[in-house]
Specification:
The structure holds two protein chains of two kinds.
Chain A lengths: L5 H18 L6 H6 L9 E2 L1 H4 L1 E8 L1 H22 L4 E9 L2 E8 L5 H11 L3 E6 L2 E6 L1 H26 L5 E5 L3 E7 L5 H8 L4 E5 L7 E4 L12 E7 L4 E8 L4 E2 L3 E8 L6 E7 L3 H12 L5 E5 L2 E4 L11 E4 L5 H13 L6 E9 L1 H30 L1 H24 L2 E2 L1 H30 L4 H33 L3 H34 L8
Parallel strand pairs in A: 1-20
Antiparallel strand pairs in A: 2-8, 2-19, 3-4, 4-6, 5-6, 7-8, 9-13, 9-16, 10-12, 11-12, 14-15, 15-18, 16-17
Helix pairs in contact in A: 1-11, 4-5, 6-9, 10-11, 10-12, 11-12, 11-14, 12-13, 12-14, 13-14
Chain B lengths: L14 H25 L3 E2 L1 H4 L1 E7 L6 H9 L6 E6 L1 E9 L6 H14 L4 E8 L1 H29 L2 H24 L3 E2 L1 H31 L5 H33 L1 H31 L23
Parallel strand pairs in B: 1-6
Antiparallel strand pairs in B: 2-4, 2-5, 3-4
The chains are: A alpha+beta, B alpha+beta.
Chain lengths: 532, 312
Amino acid sequence: MLVVSRFRVVSTVIICLLGLIFALPSVVDQKTFDRLPSFLQHTVNLGLELRGGSHIQLEADIKSVEKEHQESIIDEARKQLRKNNIKYNRISVQVTDKGSSILIALNDVNDIPKVTKILSKIEPELEVTSNGPRITAVLSQTFFDNFAKRIVDESIEVIRHRIDESGTKEPTILKQGTNRITVQLPGVDNPAEIKKLLGKTAILTFHGVDEEMQSIQVKDGIRPHLPTKPGVMYLPEEKGNGMKVYVPIKKQISLTGKSLVDAQMGIDQQTGMPCVHIKFDSIDGTRKIAELSTKYLHKQFAMVLDGKVLSAPVFQAVLTGGSAQITGHFSMEEATELALLLRAGSLPAPLNVVEERSVGPSLGADSIADGKNATIFAFILVSLFMILSYGLFGFFSVISLSCNITLLFACLTLLGATLTLPGIAGIALTIGMAVDSNVLIYERIREEIRAGIKASVAIAKGYKMAMMTILDSNLTTLVGSIVLYEFGSGPIKGFAVTLALGTVISLFTTFSLTKSIIALWMRRNRHKEIVI
Amino acid sequence: MFRLHLIPYGSKFDFIGMSRYILSLAVIVIVVCFSCMIFKGLNYGIDFKGGYIFEVKMPNVPDIPMLRGKLNNLGLGEVAIQEFGTKEDLMIKLEKSEEGSGQEKAIQTVREILGDGVVYKRIETVGPKVGEELVSNAIKAVTFALLAMLLYIAIRFEWQFGVCAIAALVHDCAILFGMFSIFPLEFSETSITAILLTASYSINDTVVIFDRIRENLKRYKKMALGELINLSLNETLSRTALTATTTLLAVLSLYIFGGKVIASFALPIMIGIIVGTFSSIFVASPLLMSLNLKRKDDDEQPKDRGIPANLG
């Protein structure tokens, strides 16, 4: 006799009911859904290709930041070398495929120990090697790794701020590998605006303007010959009328946008042009802007964003309140965007878009409808086939198959897993493969009956004999899918989740549900002849 | 009562006898498929190669040759334009991939060429580096998964079983890859998932048969190995056919009703299931013969048949 304990039957029924309760919210209409208690208001998380939206992968340009860091080391090293009266031929940053390194060619080989010491004082994480009078210094791998990690983590924070500020709902922002960031934006099918927001580093700095050098005005697109002076650089300013002015600004940064606490779009009282009102934090920023405006009172200074001069006005008064306004040739939109970027903070490294996918809502809806149809037909075909092959017992496995699908949906909902297009295909396939355990058992029972054993005994035996086979084949699949989940990425991970869940659930339905049904049926029909 | 029997009871196919020819045929097929992959290569999709995909609905029936001409002039590599469903629905692929701001410009230019009133259902842009990483990640994941399964089978059975199961998997994968290469079907991220599904189906199928062989090895200690494997294959044949049928039915409905994207995914799986079923019978099992399988000659009594079992 096939015996299943009462506890097992009850717990099986409870699990199946729970599955039904958690799977239902995914299929009811919106009205019913809103009336559900809050713990049930979870649906299967649809992947972007199903619900419509954009997926953007960004790569942080860490090498450029590394190079910048090395250049600042060189600036310091130059000073130190001069101070210590060490002669050199050349000092520069060398960029190769592998990364950048600092190169110093000395006049005298005997200076090497001194220079090494100077370098390690400026940056302890430099690894210095020498070849004759030439010194090569690179940042150590651990430093670089930490550096990269910090840059990516900071970037993620800034991106989150920017996207939140732009009003986009439910973004998913994830780190990928060492220097990639994935941004998923449901419902956004034209991400050009957001990409523009993400692509800007938005580093705002205030500089003094050199008074001895002349500004140079040219037409757009023309690159004039620019005079040079140590500590001074020419940066372009758009004038808005097809003209560009190159402004000689001091390299030294007097104030950065980091100490900002607020930025809002506004209208300049004097010109009536859009501008951005900024407010500095009460201690550091306010003091610095007061100092700067005292130093440059009635003199020209420049506000620089990402290597471009926004405007170079003259301080009319000493600013003591910690507020200021950024003027420039902005449109309303540009001023609003700049205010947003300043509020969200600047990116520590430039970000490049390396991958982008966007799916319009109509395609997603079509895919869902197609997936649904395919799943329903798969279910019908498999059910018919099982009933044709095994009669009543085939019908039992159809019941367990429906529970299988319900539980799969419930688990996907509870785990917050994302259902993708291959995921839907995975579900349809699970339908095909889930009956395998039943087939194994039924075939075994048939064999036992043919060997001349009484049907009721044969059923118990069939279960017992098939158990090991089912465990082995399913555990093999499970082991494979766990490894796939661990090492795979993107769709492979999603596939692994569906596969693993499907395997575990089909084990449950076979050994608890179908078994209970058969055991109960047999108790009722003890004396009937059993035909499988 | 009517019962559908795909395989009549008591089938006595001589699989081992056939396997000599079939195994050598399989080796030839594997070699052909692999050399095709090496010399002809795979028709990598945008996922791997980098590039652009636009799926659009045009406001009216478009002049495809003219569009193609215009897009070709952009210098964005090979241009492929396909009708996708109705005459207004187009799938446009551009092969060249760029990094950084070039992407945005390219998308903008294509939008300008297509004109107004176009509904953009899907736009994908993949940079060249991302593709390379995807391939290496996928290969790593699949290799580890195979090794883990090999290890599991080796522990649960004997190492010979593990080796044979993996040999069957290599056979399946070779044929699938070969198909992708010969017919040039587009090889994308979903294709990898399709191959994985095939692999997991195939290993499942193989394990079921191996399980029966293991059981029969204990039961019939004196039976010749070839005869024993034949017996086991015939005993499990009905189940093999039934499960393959139900799974094929499910994939078939994916192929017919699942829409274009899912259909392109279902096709390799259908072939994979047939190949996987074939390989469990004709590759994995006969190979056991040539791997010097150790048979335990202990005095353990053969497993009983007929004692009622109580399960609770």
